[in-house]
Amino acid sequence: FANVEPMVADGPKLNDYLREMNKKVLSHYDVMSVGEMPSAKPKDALEYTGLDAHELNMVFQFDHVTLALNKDPRLGKWNDQPVKLVDLKQALSKWQTALDGKGWNSLYWNNHDRARAVSRFGNDSPQYRVLSAKMLATTLHMMQGTPYIYQGEELGMTNAHFTALSE
């Protein structure tokens, strides 16, 4: 699979377009805006969401969900590789520290493009599923930012454990 991100993300006019959209549309309503920015670094997020930016309120960044990428390129983001706790803590801490008092974090574990949080970051065995789900929810809600809860996440939903295509 080709990486199309350089062709579709962070174009040279993006800031101009976002400021114009904010000025002509968003600023007229009591709404909040969030941009999905897979390659964003904290400095980029501050550029888009800083208190004086007038572009977006927050961004979805992907640092924590792209840790320990799958070695099989055919599987891409559908990842079952274990994540090292120290790497996860560093990724989350980096964003918490960088945006503190200057921008706003969007907090999430998974979405329609990612593995279920309990299966990816916890232990989805019957013995530890509930405990893992509670740990992940507590971690998410104790950080600074707006938590996003993907459907089923509030129940500790896990990945489907299919063993054949017929299932």
Automatic annotation (TrEMBL):
Keywords of the record: Hydrolase
Top-level taxon of origin: Bacteria
GO BP terms: oligosaccharide catabolic process
Gene3D superfamilies tied to this protein: Glycosidases (3.20.20.80)
KW Hydrolase (keyword) present: yes
Keyword Cell inner membrane: no
InterPro entries, per the entry: GH, GH13_cat_dom
Family affiliation: Belongs to the glycosyl hydrolase 13 family.
Name recorded for this polypeptide: Alpha-amylase
UniProt organism field: uncultured Lactobacillus sp
